[in-house]
Amino acid sequence: MAENGKFCVGLVQMSCGSDPDANLDKAAERVREAARQGADVVCLPELFRAQYFCQREDIKLFDLAETIPGPTTEKLGAVAREEKVVVIASLFERRAPGLYHNTAAILEKDGRIAGMYRKMHIPDDPLYYEKFYFTPGDLGFPNFDTKFGRIAVLVCWDQWYPEGARLASLGGASIIFYPTAIGWHPSEKSEHGASQLDAWRTIQRSHAIANGIFVAAVNRTGYEGTKESGLEFWGSSFVADPFGQIIAEASTNKEEILVVECDPRRMDDIRRNWPFLRDRRIDAYSPILKRWLD
């Protein structure tokens, strides 16, 4: 991190094959590449060690889960230590027999685990059967102090919830990372694909604007699933500044590494001129804790 507080984020947009060990090796090498391009904090896509297994409900797939600490945090921790970068690794966590989470581990530049975020919002949609595998998170929306500044991490489906982004931002983070696995049902792409991608991009830009914070979304790319039924992951990883302007974006269909400089002074500038946090009516928001206002 520069003396003026600037830091560089690295987003690893990658495809995932059928061999978990090969995926881990690829991820480790991509982290090294990002670090050597100047990244201080490197984020990998959601559940990068396997192909997106939640496309079906299969008891055998629980064997993909691992403990934290475990083999992935050990390998990536060594990379973090050697390259002197912070790494955000999204994992299928085996917390206890029969208890599993979709968890992001934050690895400090010395290789130690600085903290974890367990995905709070769990979807259940065609080809996204995550409720079968994951228990909702119980750690809230924490911030993490790293060598390169204070960060927040949410995961994929959390992207659609302004409450999560707000609470993560109120902790003082300079940036929210969203490791992601999202794509098109190929049969819907021609009719709905453009609007789906636009909505995904827009909702996350809105979190940046509403909170005056940097937002970084990192997705996988490529097709996964059977020929008859699968998902085409739409890539499009990006970083938005605290006014929602996209300052870097990847393609929809290629593996890429984005390295982007973020200057926290931009947050000061935006928040002074658009003081949404100042003008919040925290005395009037208690009804939001209800499921529905009857």
Structure commentary:
This protein is of the alpha/beta class and 294 residues long. It has a single domain, classed as Nitrilase/N-carbamoyl-D-aminoacid amidohydrolase (4-Layer Sandwich), CATH 3.60.110. 25% of the residues lie in helices and 28% in strands. The chain is globular, with a radius of gyration of 18 Å. 45% of the residues are buried.
Keywords summarizing the entry:
294 residues; alpha/beta; Nitrilase/N-carbamoyl-D-aminoacid amidohydrolase; 6-stranded mixed beta sheet; 15 strands
Uncertain residue segments: none
The number of helical segments is 5
Chain oligomer state: single chain
Q: According to CATH, what is the class?
A: Alpha Beta
Mean pLDDT: 97
Order of helices and strands: EHEHEEEEEHEEHEEEEEEH
Secondary-structure map:
Blueprint: E1 7-13, H1 20-36, E2 41-43, H2 71-83, E3 86-96, E4 99-107, E5 113-118, E6 143-146, E7 149-153, H3 162-170, E8 175-179, E9 183-184, H4 186-211, E10 214-218, E11 221-225, E12 230-234, E13 238-240, E14 246-249, E15 256-262, H5 265-273
Parallel strand pairs: 1-2, 2-3, 7-8, 8-10
Antiparallel strand pairs: 1-15, 3-4, 4-5, 6-7, 9-12, 10-13, 11-12, 13-14
Helix pairs in contact: 1-2, 3-4
